[in-house]
Amino acid sequence: MIRRRPWLLPVALLAVGGVVSLALRNRWDTWLYYEVRVPLVPIAVGVIAAVVALVVPRRADRARRSADDIRAAALGSARDERRQLVRRLDHEIKNPVTAIRAGVANIAAMSLPAGAAAAVTSVDEQAQRLSRLVGDLRKLADLEQFDIERETVDLAEVVGDVANAVEDLPGAESRTLQTFVPEVPWRVGAIAGDPDLVFLAVMNLVSNALKFSDPGARIELRALEEDRHAAIEVADNGVGIPADELPHVWEELSRGEAARAVPGSGIGLALVRTIVERHGGDVSIRSQPGKGTVVRLRFPMTAPP
Predict the structure, then answer these.
(1) Per-residue buried b or exposed e for 139-173, using 16+ beta carbons within 10 Å of the residue's own CB
(2) What's the gap between Cα 135 and its chain centre?
(3) 3-class DSSP state for residue 233?
């Protein structure tokens, strides 16, 4: 309260002093003592309180702002260093990986024993994985740095585009994908953003649902709205995620116990989170081991539907 209204304390003390002075007036016979000396007490206390109320909070605010500036500068410096590291990795690793894959392709074209052929295939897969990892890190660093394009994005269209693209993903033929986009009493409202990035975020979630579910599993892709926000949910009845791993799934390079047996870079969900946050939205996840997972991406709508 003192920070918002620093004058309240000295005014209150002056008022109390005045009341005390009036009370003392009846107990002293001389007006000189009342008019000159008694009021000096509340006035002095009020002046001191005013100085304390005005100066101390300001110094505290300056110290707090200084600490916040230091933290913000340190965070910005760390982000700049990470972006430089990622760019350097992208530059330094791209050529060697390309050369490795070209050499592997030449070897694979030869007549090789079964064991050697499997080893060559494994090398090629790991080279591809390394290339994807560096590429995803570069995307993540760029997303955090550069402004995104803004145009009207219809989430119903995004859901349809993802449903069509999923058909070409491995494992899609043995899973059932169902989409739900409400039309009554109205369609989900539009959002402002980059349609390609929103598509990429949803596609990553559906790809994860395919990876971490068994053949015959069911995946649902839903569009909905709540509290002037439009949302997309991806739900599956796959392997699920343990409760102790849920707080870390959005972190870079985070891979749970079940994910270690599945090829991936560990960047996908971090990329999804960054895309949604750059659109002013938020992400959430619910999961139970053995039952499945629901991931929600929520975006502010540009206008009511």
Answers:
(1) bbbebeeeeeeeeebbbbebbebbbeebeeeeebe
(2) 20
(3) strand
Instruction: Look at residue 83 and tell me whether its pLDDT is greater than 70.
Output: no
Measured in Å, how far apart are the chain's first and last C-alpha atoms? 42
Q: Report the C-alpha dihedral over residues 102, 104, 105, 111, rounded to 10 degrees.
A: 150
SS3 letters across 8-34: HHHHHHHHHHHHHHHHHHCCCCCHHHH
pLDDT tens, position by position, 18-46:
565 555 555 544 444 444 444 555 556 56
How far apart are the C-alpha atoms of 209 and 305, rounded to whole Å?
29
Of 27 and 119, the structure prediction assigns the larger pLDDT to: 119
- DSSP-H helix ranges across 109-173: 114-145, 155-166
Distance between CA atoms of residues 135 and 89, nearest Å: 10
Tokens encoding 246: 């849920």
pLDDT at 305 over 70: no
The neighbouring-strand residues paired with 299 are 230
Task: With residue 66 as reference, give the H or E element that holds it.
Answer: helix 40-108
Which phi and psi (to 5°) does residue 75 adopt? -65, -45
Q: What angle do CA 88, 94, 99 make, to 5 degrees?
A: 145
Looking at the whole model, is its pTM more than 0.90? Answer: no
Examine the pLDDT at 280 and tell me if it is beyond 90.
Answer: yes
CA–CA gap between residue 194 and residue 192 (Å, rounded): 7
